[in-house]
């Protein structure tokens, strides 16, 4: 049996610590056997996953600082790769300031490369921020764009004005608002749809054919409202981290 075959059969724990939630998944190859999300997980949860699923290795990624006990405890249980800008990748990273690049952006692009091998693909993560990331058919990650997420836009209008109310995000919104709250919904939601559609169109003019894959908590909203055709994969970052772990195992 080849080394690559052994790696693909290994059970892996993948941990993505985001701005608001920590997401975890257990992979067997590219298949997800278990996944969960919470604000925080304790060591008992980690120990339970390792025991139940026979975890043999792990990868952990965070957009901020990783709490010491989490990383330390996990690495004591199984070999653990801490994902950083120095981690070898299965794609070519052409970003000029790699040390400032969010690991979630990079992992999502690697995940997109698993779904769309040898294709131009635009990866859009619609969470706290909206990030756009382009991977070419040659396997080169070129970079992209960052803009405020939907909830951030609503909060900004409330925070930076004297009287505008904080409006809750939902999928019902008008083109012409006849109240202040409805006007805010119209401006934020119609505006973000126009932004995303325009960005996709602009990239497609230069990189065609182009696949578009969405991830993040607000993907459902864009799936129903964009004129462009998109694919939604809720665990794209986790898929990418698992691919990065496989790649690094095969380098050893």
What features would you describe in this structure?
With 252 residues, this protein is of the alpha/beta class. Helices cover 40% and strands 25% of the residues. It has eight helices and eleven strands. It has helices at residues 3-9, 43-53, 68-77, 103-115, 150-159, 180-206, 219-225, 236-251, and strands spanning 11-17, 22-28, 31-38, 57-62, 80-82, 92-93, 120-126, 129-135, 140-148, 210-215, 231-232. The strands form two sheets. The protein has a six-stranded mixed β-sheet with strand order 6-9-8-7-10-11, with helices on both faces. The chain has a five-stranded mixed β-sheet with strand order 3-2-1-4-5, with helices on both faces. Helix 2 runs parallel beside helix 3, helix 4 crosses helix 8 (236-251) and helix 5 (150-159) packs across helix 6 (180-206). The protein is globular. The two termini are 16 Å apart.
